[in-house]
Specification:
CATH topology of one domain: Rossmann fold
Helix content: 25-40%
Shape: globular
Number of helices: 14
Strand order of the largest sheet: 3-2-1-4-5-6-10-15-14
Strand content: 15-25%
Order of helices and strands: EHEHHEHEHHEHEEHEEHEEHEEHEEHEHH
Structural class: alpha/beta
Number of strands: 16
């Protein structure tokens, strides 16, 4: 990963599942010790508990050095929807990780303009702050989702526009590098399906899936952070990094978690805005997609940003969750590796499962 030694880092939405793991990884020193990490979010309760969590880390560990974190970690109450909140925080940053979002598909369907305000206006405020105030921000990494590819729901639509806001930001702020990452379902993140399945199994079932054909890409929170770090290190301006990750049927995920239990799986029907299969790279985007080892990189669609770069095309069709499905046994091995099988869960709270 590109060294963050001596850098001032801003994480919007830093109290979320991803933001917390990203913060932990940065503070671990694996990429050098930053000058400061600023957490910008609007939830004072989540900030309070996150602060207490670090203050209770009184012993030096591989992840956090107690004597250092107080000067490194700063919490700020603010909302990405508010330009003044954003400008005040961004002016002190060398690197910005844009993780604040409304990400629940049904919520965004019922409150679409709220999704617009957070997922589009929030990123626009970051670009605008850098442009209007001439800020010396080196890199902005926008966190997107597979739902932004051929979007059929409001969450995906707003995230797709977020990507374009950041890609075009390279034209408005030529001294700042704007890049994006796009990935699928994060295992056991807050609001994801695995904690729901755990609770349904613990209560005797049924375990609910919306359709028996549904497939999803799967990766861990640490893998999601790996994608972010890879983009920070290797992405050219306007590029979108995509991880190469496995996918699975949701019915197989339910079966793997249920194990030998006599628990019913109930099909409830597709929710508003839900896809049967997710796509990380569309057929149209495949023409702009390059192989970057464990990742794909989509070159920017705007010629002013792409310049003379010509993609060495790595895909001949779309990259869909239906194409390379894990077997049930492979899925059980994956979940066991992350300690997410229900029979392994005894004595663990959700916070432990998220780590």
């Amino acid at each position: 990963m590109l060294s963050v030694k001596g850098k001032r880092i801003l994480i919007t939405g830093g109290t979320g599942s991803l933001g917390k793991v990203l913060t932990k990884r940065i503070l671990s020193g694996e990429a050098g010790t930053p000058a400061k990490v600023i957490i910008l979010s609007r939830d004072e309760a989540k900030q309070h508990f996150m602060r207490i969590e670090y203050e209770n880390s009184v012993a030096a560990t591989d992840e956090i050095i107690y004597n250092n974190f107080k000067r490194l970690l700063e919490f700020r109450i603010g909302d990405v929807r508010d330009f003044h909140s954003v400008a005040s925080a961004v002016k002190e940053a060398d690197i910005v990780f844009s993780a604040a979002a409304l990400k629940q598909v049904p919520t965004c369907e019922y409150f679409p303009f709220e999704a617009v305000r957070t997922n589009i206006a929030g990123p626009e405020n970051i670009v605008r702050a850098i442009q209007e105030h001439g800020l010396a921000v080196e890199t902005v990494v926008g966190i997107s989702t597979d739902k932004a590819c051929k979007p059929v729901n409001v969450m995906g639509m707003t995230k797709a526009i977020q990507e374009r806001v950041y890609i075009q930001g390279n034209m408005r702020c030529p001294k700042t590098r704007f890049v994006c990452v796009r990935y699928g379902n994060v295992l056991a993140s807050r609001g994801s399906v695995i904690p729901l399945f755990h609770k349904q199994i613990a209560s005797g079932g049924p375990v609910t899936v919306t359709t028996s054909d549904m497939t999803r890409f799967l990766l861990s929170l640490n893998q999601a952070v790996d994608v972010i770090f890879a983009a920070l290190k290797g992405a050219n301006p306007g590029e979108t990094y995509i991880p190469r990750v496995p996918s699975a049927r949701m019915t197989d995920l339910a079966k793997a978690l249920i194990g030998d239990r006599d628990t019913e799986i109930k099909v409830t029907g597709i929710r508003p805005g839900e896809k049967i299969h997710e796509i990380l790279i569309s057929e149209e985007e495949s023409f702009l997609t390059e192989d970057r080892g464990n990742y794909y990189a989509i070159l920017p669609i705007l010629p002013e940003v792409c310049g003379d770069r010509k993609a060495k095309r790595a895909l001949q069709s779309e990259y869909s969750s239906k194409d390379s499905l894990m077997t049930l046994q492979e899925l059980r091995v994956l979940l066991e590796g992350y300690g997410l099988l229900v029979e392994q869960q005894s004595g663990k709270d959700e916070g432990e499962l998220l780590r």
